[in-house]
Amino acid sequence: MFKMKANELLEQIREANLSYLLLAKQLINEDKAEAIIRLGIDENTADLLDQLTTAQVLRIAANDVPMCSIRFEDPAVWKLLCDHGKERAISGMHAAILMAGRSAQIAA
């Protein structure tokens, strides 16, 4: 029973990896600068992802290690994202600005 749940979990990780990589490639293809901010990656990583072949994407996605991670630890960002008030769009934009600023600090 435990083995079956572990296998299901690993399969879900692989599916999430594939979805993330495909989304990343699409975002990079549509607007590289915006993708870098949204994905929280640097330009070199964006270039690398953009150049991956379909076979490489499938091979990478098959790993049991998640390709993406939660990239913000600031409680203020969590509060803004969880806010379901009337100003939800503004809260989302404010959270995006905070995360973009954090990405810029890390890159510097």
From TrEMBL:
It is found in: Cytoplasm. Gene3D superfamilies: Flagellar transcriptional activator FlhD (1.10.4000.10). Pfam families: FlhD (PF05247). Homodimer; disulfide-linked. Forms a heterohexamer composed of two FlhC and four FlhD subunits. Each FlhC binds a FlhD dimer, forming a heterotrimer, and a hexamer assembles by dimerization of two heterotrimers. Its main location: cytoplasm. The C-terminal region contains a putative helix-turn-helix (HTH) motif, suggesting that this region may bind DNA. This is Flagellar transcriptional regulator FlhD. Signal peptide: none annotated. Belongs to the FlhD family. It comes from Limnobacter profundi. The keyword NAD does not apply. InterPro entries: Flagellar_FlhD, FlhD_sf. Functions in complex with FlhC as a master transcriptional regulator that regulates transcription of several flagellar and non-flagellar operons by binding to their promoter region. Activates expression of class 2 flagellar genes, including fliA, which is a flagellum-specific sigma factor that turns on the class 3 genes. Also regulates genes whose products function in a variety of physiological pathways. Coiled coil: none annotated. Keywords: Activator, Bacterial flagellum biogenesis, Cell projection, Cilium, Cytoplasm, Disulfide bond, DNA-binding, Flagellum, Transcription, Transcription regulation.
